Amino acid sequence: MTARIDFSFDSVVAEAKQRAGLDNFGDYSFEAPLRVLLHALEVEAKLSELGREMQHERVVNALVNRLQLQDFCQRYPEILDEQIAAPVVIVGLPRTGTTMLQRTMACDERFYSPLWYEIHYPAPARDWDFTTENDARIPQAELDVEAILEVSPGLAAIHPLEAGAADEEIILLEHSFFSTTPEAFCNIPGYGDWLSEADNTPGYQYLRRQLQFLQWQKKKSGVNPNAERWLLKSPHHLHHMQTLLEVFPGTKVVQTHRDPLQTIPSICSFNSTLWAMNSEAVDDQEIARQWSDKFARGMRHTMAVRAQYPEAFLDLWFDQTTTDAQGCARAIYEFVGMQASESALEKMRQWRQANKREDRAPHHYTLQQFGLTEQGLSEQFNDYRQAFIVNR
Q: Rounded to 10 degrees, what is the CA torsion of 335, 338, 343, 346?
């Protein structure tokens, strides 16, 4: 009989140090959120044995990544001299075209984009020669993607996974344990409540440090030699927009819009798929309650921030992002003060042609499946819908 996986703080920290062969985290700003998360995983999540193993692995891997980043910063102190120019950040409810828009704009080599393998493995091998050909993270990430889709093939219809594609930096935030990602995998309301009330500044400051690290790597390896600024994307920022703008001054926010009556049940379906990978006690109505409440609060927060900084936001709607990629790109260029690049626009056109949504399997879900109603969601998101959907 195998020993039960230990979710104690001391245990996961010790295991991370042993795996990494390192023992210096630099600082322990991650300790408070990690302790709350570990307690919730043990007490609330009702994890299956596979779920315990997967969530334990996520935690330990995040700690290993922190140790490795600190090691690189000690050996290459110039990493922390990297200047992070005001980024372009795509936000919006999930299922509003944010991934498609990010990957479209990432065709312009003037943007740095965090790639899937980079956000899961920010640190390369210590002896890496700074060539992509010899970067062991890439084949490892390709194996990871294959394994994920083997366990849950339906994910491809919801969120396309590709090791070398641009993806959202919420996984980088997970390395500080100030991230909603764990809540997407299992039922941990205690952690979610704590996170929504806590000052998330340490998480965003650590995100900045990780971007410095990745930017330094890209420069050393000659990737994106013409890059000027980061292109980021995550619905997570809706919950902490004020903090994002404070930690990254001058940020330009591109907000995508789609009716929550369509997006919220789709979000719930995605998270139900993830919960089922980790627990044998999946409650679809509890998923709907948690995530509709969470995004309604996040949208109210972002609307309040928009009222203070209207010049920092550009609005695009789902029908625009899905049918007029070049029009959206030109609007973004004008908004952020960049000259439109005809060669980049052509690359975007070609990428969109090769990555049509209709080429992926359809994603099926209903309001009723999650105990949701049009009236309930309309009331919950009333201010947002009146401002951006009903009276568009």
A: -10
Residue 210 has, within 13 A of its CA and on its CB side, a CA count of: 30
Structure tokens at 310: 């209207």
Cα–Cα separations (whole angstroms), residue 369 to 174, 188, 266 = 29, 21, 11
- Paired with 253 in beta bridges are 89, 313
Taking the C-alpha atoms of residue 35 and residue 177, their distance in angstroms, rounded to an integer, is 9
What is the three-class DSSP state of 123? coil
Cα(84)–Cα(172) distance, rounded to whole angstroms? 16
217 contacts 88 by C-beta, under 8 angstroms: no
DSSP 202-233: HHHHHHHHHHHHHHHHHHHHT-STT--EEEEE
Number of H helices, E strands in the chain: 19, 5
Distance between CA 320 and CA 187 in Å, rounded? 35
Domain boundaries, the chain: 86-390
- Torsional class of 259: left (φ above 0), alpha (ψ -120 to 50), beta (otherwise): beta
> At 142, which amino acid appears?
E
Indicate whether 92 pLDDT > 50: yes
Q: Cα–Cα distance between 121 and 128 in angstroms, integer?
A: 13
User: Which residues does residue 315 pair with via DSSP β-bridges, in sequence order?
Assistant: 255
Q: What is the reported pLDDT for 362? A: 61
pTM: 0.95
Architecture of domain 86-390: 3-Layer(aba) Sandwich (3.40)
Residue 44 burial class via C-beta count within 10 angstroms: exposed 0-12, middle 13-18, buried 19 and up: middle
Query: pLDDT tens digits, residue range 20-68?
Result: 999 999 999 999 999 999 999 999 999 999 999 999 999 999 999 999 9
